[in-house]
Amino acid sequence: MPAKLSKLEEKALALLMQNEVGMLQSELWHKLGVTSREGSRIGIKLERKGYIKRVKAFSNDRWTRRLVPLIKQINIEPLIGVPCPSCVYDNVCGPRGEHHYKTCILLEEWLSGRK
Fold this sequence. Notes:
This protein has 2 domains: 7-69, Winged helix-like DNA-binding domain superfamily/Winged helix DNA-binding domain (Arc Repressor Mutant, subunit A, Orthogonal Bundle); 77-112, no CATH class. The radius of gyration is 22 Å and the shape is elongated. Helix 1 crosses helix 3 and helix 2 (25-32) packs across helix 3. The chain is 34% helix and 16% strand. It is α+β, with helices and mostly antiparallel strands and 115 residues long. It comes from Caldiarchaeum subterraneum.
C-alpha cells in the first residue's frame, strides 16, 4: 500500500509531475509558499516514500537539489471504449477458452474503429 501523503506533499508532487526533469527544491518551496526548511523536509519525505529522487545540482552559485518525479502520469484516453471489461465472453476468454483475444471480433472491430 502506498504511503499516505499530506495535502502539502500531494500539492508538491503534483507540481513536480508537471515536468519530467523536475524542479529545483528552492523553486518548489517558493511555489508552495513554505520556508526553505519545510520545503527541504517535504522533498526528503517524498524521497523516502519513493515518489521522487533528489539529485544534487549547482544553481545560482550554490549547491541545491533537483527533485525529479519517479512516477509518471498515465493517459487512459486510448483505452476508453475497449470492449474487454464488459464483454459477455469474459469468463470463457483466454488461450484455452472458446474465445481468445487474438481472434475476438469485438476487439477487432474496436481496434479498427468500426464500433
